[in-house]
Amino acid sequence: MLHHPLRLAALSLLGLGACTFHSTASHWHQRTAPDGKPVFVTTTTAYGLNLGIVLPFLGDTRLDETVDRACEHIARSDSNGVRVVETESYNYWYAIPPFTWLFTPVVMSVSLEYTPSAKLLAETAAADAWRDQKALERREQDHSHLIPEPRR
User: Fold this and answer.
1) What's the whole-model pTM score?
2) Which of 85, 103, 134, 151 could form a disulfide with 111, with the two C-beta atoms 3.0–4.6 Å apart?
C-alpha cells in the first residue's frame, strides 16, 4: 500500500501527464527581424510520464511531437516562417526513487520564432488598443476616495 505522500505524488503526476501549454511573446517595442518583418516567439511546453524512465506512457514529449504541436498552434493563425530558437528536455527519474524509476515525469519545451500573419497582427493591434483604452479609462477615473485622510 502506498503511503499518503506517495499517493499524492502519483495523482499529481497523472494529472500533469499529457498536458501541453503555449505561451507567445508578441511585443518587441517596434523591433523587427533582420528581414524587416515583425516576429513573434512562441514557447510550447509538453508534460508527460515515461514508464521505466524511457518508454512514453502518458503524453508524447519527443522533440518531433512537441515541434509539431507548436507548429499547429502557429498554423491556426495562418502564420509562417518558423525557426527553432531553443529546445529543453528534462527527465526527472531521480526525483522520488524508486517511484520515479517506474513512472518518470518528463518535460519538453521548444521555443519557435515565426512571422505573424496580417490577420494575427491586426488581432494583436486590436487587443492592444482595447487594453490601452481600458487603462486610460482607469487612469481617468476619480480616485479621490482612495486617498487617505491626513494624519492629525
Assistant:
1) 0.75
2) 85
Q: Is the dihedral of CA 8, 103, 59, 24 positive or negative?
A: positive
- Which of helix, strand or coil describes residue 6? helix
44 CB-near residues (< 8 Å, 6+ apart): 20, 21, 22, 66, 69, 70, 73, 109, 110, 111, 112
Q: How many residues does the chain have?
A: 152
Give the end-to-end CA distance of the chain in Å, rounded to a whole number. Answer: 66
Residue 63 has pLDDT above 70, yes or no: yes
State the Cα–Cα distance between residues 152 and 142, nearest whole angstrom. 25
Structure confidence by residue, pLDDT tens digits, 24-37:
998 887 788 888 88
- Domain span at 77: 4-141
Report the C-alpha gap between 148 and 131 in whole angstroms.
Answer: 29
